[in-house]
Write a structure and sequence with these properties.
By secondary structure, the protein is an alpha+beta fold. It has one domain: Gcn5-related N-acetyltransferase (GNAT) (Aminopeptidase, 3-Layer(aba) Sandwich), CATH 3.40.630.30. The chain is built from 6 helices and 8 strands. Bound molecules: coenzyme A.
Length: 180
């Protein structure tokens, strides 16, 4: 049980058999217009495969209120970063503090792991980008899966955990040292 702005919510692991259809519906409703603008049309088969692959294999948590699902998200520690993926709240529950709570929880994981907190957002998803900027993120890169363009964004408080990109080019490969 978690309390956010004086309201109580339950968290439980997602069960694809029970939750996938509802979750995919929310994902599609949330991103349909943005993807259509970028890709020309909603790619139903590819979008379902992309979404269900992540939903079934990531540690997705369902946010519940009074026994009903109201959103979901997955916090993950990857090799080089901590990330939140598949973060979607039902329209009636946006603006109630839950997204901020999820970012705060992910930030704690990033600080513990000493890894940058990064995620991606569609380049034209302006409301989500404004939310992320408000929460302390900045654009640090770009990603493109051939259909849609994404900003790669990083939380400023975790900037110091980014390893310098030129570390490997500065240090001589082992073979070089022994060959000299
Ligand atoms: C994006 C999303 C997860 C944000 O969660 P949320 O619960 O609505 O956000 P919160 O209510 O926790 O807001 C946290 C803070 O961000 C601010 N904020 C929220 N939305 C904002 C927006 N569109 N623009 C600017 N600031 C925003 C809030 O005012 C709040 O500020 P405060 O803490 O200073 O009071 C949610 O709106 C959502 O599910 N959107 C649709 C799906 C989506 O686009 N997901 C992201 C895919 S990358």
């Amino acid at each position: 049980m978690i309390t956010v702005r004086d309201k109580e919510f339950d968290l439980r692991p997602a069960d694809p058999k029970k939750d996938l259809d509802w979750a995919y519906g929310l994902f599609k409703q949330s991103l349909h217009d943005f993807v259509e603008e970028l890709a020309g049309a909603w790619p139903e088969t590819g979008a379902y495969e992309f979404f269900s692959e992540g939903f079934c294999h990531m540690p997705i948590k369902m946010l519940m209120h009074d026994g009903d699902p109201i959103g979901f998200f997955g916090i993950m520690e990857e090799e080089k970063r901590v990330t939140v993926q598949r973060m979607y709240l039902a329209p009636a529950w946006r603006g109630a503090g839950l997204g901020g709570w999820i970012i705060g929880e992910t930030l704690k994981v990033a600080h513990r792991a000493q890894k940058p907190f990064e995620t991606e957002v569609l380049v034209n998803n302006k409301p989500a980008m404004a939310f992320y900027e408000h929460m302390g993120f900045a654009i640090v890169g770009a990603d493109d899966d051939g259909l849609v363009k994404l900003h790669v964004i990083r939380h400023r408080d975790t900037e110091s955990y980014v390893l310098p990109r030129n570390i490997s080019s500065q240090s001589a490969p082992v073979g070089d040292i022994f060959d000299r």
